[in-house]
């Protein structure tokens, strides 16, 4: 009899695992059943802001592989079916068909993959569950938001939270002719950057006409007689809103795993080993937005939900459940995003993250241009670099600039992975030609300055 | 008395060395004399094609620091002065003032820096020294070429050689409304790439209206009665030309060093140690286009003249002559260039280079897009990857694509420096967001395919 694999969650991690396992083992050896609670599989949630903003025709364009395509590859995919219980002892899961009167049934497994994703943070405030308040974590979320936008006669939006999703959504709403207010608790928007770099993003948001309220503590979503959101209240003011978007981040969707006694980290994310096997379990794997990943620079696990990690997790899990061998070594914390023509990137640790794990460091910030200053359209590019005191080891890089700035962060991402010092980085043989870079790439200029700062700091 | 430093050559390596030394030691400790045979100092020769093509206002924009600026920093700079002899035994150089009736004089030194650069290859063919035949190695060369272009009534240009300088010059001449023919000995233009990748560049050149003649063996430059170039002859045909540009590469300008008995490599480039000190000499340093550099992937030194290396050499030399400490570890062979909107990049070894040093390897080529396929204006991007047989160590990457493709090569440049395997590269935490990259960066897609190829090749 074929071994039985059950996958919970039909997006990147789950379906990449299923697909990779199927590539390695045919249906005679491995029977694969996958459960997805929503209407879509294998999609790019990262594309939702561009769908909402009208840059991309959604949802079809955002789907890498449809349910039909998965089924054609002999994956028994149960759409609109929510798993409600894990019975690890007997090796079975209970699932409920959402469109079929809630009919429940048990499915047995030999091996289990948890890819249950994450859900937008909803602080327990009055009105937070009102109609017109939207997260943007799944394609179903995206569709619901677009339905609200289409139906709404008003054109005022409030985005709560100015992390990268909040900022991207704010821009998308501007493109839909909304007057947008972003309410954020921090000193500066773009909490994925240190405040000094976030200030540059703030300037770009103002340029788009986005009102950004900093140090804002949201106290309630106010509703109208029909229970629809009509405004967001903070400790200081009230902001009228025809639609409210939640951009306060997400938390791992691990209620099922918790109920089954599986190990969770501080964030609530599942803990796995390097093969993405749930710690202490022989036949349970987990990946994607529901797990914590090892941060190789910070030296601990944390919740860092990104599609690029989820896809890698899926590939690793698929190889391992099919009897192959692969590992996910961890992350260095790379992220890029865009506001208007401003490119925003970071990798490694921010200042507060470095301090939190006991690292002492120097920081430098340089201004350069993304290509030779004399070549047409040279635009400024700012690079901030953190290096460990004494050792000079690279700890993090943040970049804010225009075209050609964002992916520069990959240089630092690879250098972090390799454990390079900033002094080693000075001599990196990076691509140079006037349309691509100044003769000293801005990352190298930062490395030179950081090297000097490490020396100046002494022992 | 102050120590006496003499620098020969006023471009990147020489003046970076002088400037860095001056930063570390004042004129009371170190007297610096620098000789430059041309009219310019510290300029970007890489910018010449953009000056010729009208994208950049030359020569001023291409000059990082003028002679006056150097003199203001207490560097005794002798412009239009050619060093004609090195007397290493007595520690002095003989120099001739080119604009002063050829007056010669000796200058004593305690420490010497050779930064004599390179000169365009001119095979010993009839007519190769004719008027109207131009190299493009120095700003003086660039000015002479522009004078010829301005004076010429005709609009036909022949470029000999289709390396990156030849290709960039061909495009520049198209922008000046020249009908351009490129004659090249190879199978495909862009000899810095393998022929299969060079073919993609060939297509782009055709799109610009550039006629590219491959497997062309040039036999002579034909001249008119006044000794001006009028055509270029190959074994098969004659190509009329109002101007001829040499793009066959350069060779190190080391006649002085050779006459003084300094050690040269196979290319004629000076051999140095890791501190850029000329091998076997206590008080002589060399850097820039006149030296061979250690190719960390090939495991031997070779001539790889690039402004980015020259600047680094200068910084290292400046630190060392001033009693500091710095080393240049070597290069991995990174280069980027542009034809029209096509970005062309390589790092590490080509197939023939890998074979020449005894490496066995697998190659893969993938097609992807530079950003998410569904995001507007996604353009194709091709990545070729070489990995060592058995070990899977990365040996080289070549990229041809549009906007955002070229600098991707830096990922591979850092991975090469760190000695990563292609399997390690699969899990690199690179920046991902739809406007920047597909969820699997094209470099990672290539690494996946290369990993599979290494496994398939077995032991």
Automatic annotation (TrEMBL), chains A, B:
- Give the protein's cofactors: FAD
Q: Which Pfam families match?
A: Pyr_redox_2 (PF07992), Pyr_redox_dim (PF02852)
Q: Where is the FAD/NAD(P)-binding domain?
A: 4-297
- Carries keyword DNA-binding? no
Keywords on record? FAD, Flavoprotein, Oxidoreductase, Redox-active center
- Domain Pyridine nucleotide-disulphide oxidoreductase dimerisation: residue ranges: 337-439
Query: Any idea which GO molecular function terms this record carries?
Result: oxidoreductase activity
> Family, per the entry?
Belongs to the class-III pyridine nucleotide-disulfide oxidoreductase family.
Q: Kindly provide the name given to this protein in its UniProt entry.
A: Flavoprotein oxidoreductase
């Amino acid at each position: 009899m074929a071994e039985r694999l059950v996958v919970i969650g039909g997006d990147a991690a789950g379906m990449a695992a299923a697909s990779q396992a199927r590539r390695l083992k045919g249906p005679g050896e491995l029977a694969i059943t996958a459960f997805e609670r929503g209407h879509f599989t294998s999609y790019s949630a990262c594309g939702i802001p561009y769908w909402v903003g009208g840059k991309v025709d959604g949802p079809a364009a955002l789907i890498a592989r449809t349910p039909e395509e998965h089924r054609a590859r002999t994956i028994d995919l149960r759409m609109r079916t929510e798993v409600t219980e894990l019975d690890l002892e007997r090796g079975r899961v209970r699932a409920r068909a959402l469109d079929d009167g809630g009919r429940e049934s048990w499915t047995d497994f030999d091996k289990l993959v948890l890819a249950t994703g994450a859900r937008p943070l909803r602080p327990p405030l009055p009105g937070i569950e009102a109609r017109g308040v939207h997260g943007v974590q799944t394609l179903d979320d995206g569709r619901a938001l677009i339905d609200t936008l289409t139906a709404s006669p008003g054109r005022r939006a409030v985005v709560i939270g100015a992390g990268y999703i909040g900022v991207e959504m704010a821009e998308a709403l501007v493109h839909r002719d909304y007057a947008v207010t972003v309410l954020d608790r921090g000193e500066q928007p773009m909490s994925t950057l240190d405040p000094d770099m976030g200030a540059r993003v703030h300037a770009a948001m103002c340029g788009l006409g986005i009102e950004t309220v900093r140090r804002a503590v949201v106290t309630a979503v106010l509703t109208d007689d029909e229970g629809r959101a009509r405004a967001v209240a903070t400790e200081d003011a009230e902001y009228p809103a025809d639609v409210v978007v939640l951009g306060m981040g997400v938390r791992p969707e691990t209620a099922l795993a918790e109920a089954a006694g599986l190990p969770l980290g501080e964030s609530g994310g599942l803990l796995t080993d390097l093969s993405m096997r749930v710690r202490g379990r022989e036949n349970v794997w987990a990946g994607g937005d529901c797990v914590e990943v090892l941060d190789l620079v910070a030296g601990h696990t944390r919740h860092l939900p990104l599609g690029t990690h989820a896809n890698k997790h899926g590939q690793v899990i698929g190889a391992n459940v099919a009897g192959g061998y692969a590992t996910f070594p961890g992350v260095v914390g790379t992220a890029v995003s865009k506001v208007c023509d401003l490119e925003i990137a970071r990798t490694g640790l921010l200042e507060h993250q470095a301090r939190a794990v006991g690292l002492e460091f120097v920081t430098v910030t340089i201004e350069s241009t993304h290509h030779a200053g004399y070549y047409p359209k040279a635009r400024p590019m700012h690079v901030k670099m953190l290096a460990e005191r004494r050792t000079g080891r690279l700890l993090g890089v943040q970049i804010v600039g225009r075209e050609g700035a964002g992916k520069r962060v990959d240089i630092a991402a690879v250098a972090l992975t390799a454990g390079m010092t900033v002094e080693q980085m000075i001599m990196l043989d990076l691509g140079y030609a006037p349309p691509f870079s100044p003769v000293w790439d801005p990352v190298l200029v930062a490395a030179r300055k950081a090297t000097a700062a490490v020396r100046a700091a002494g022992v």
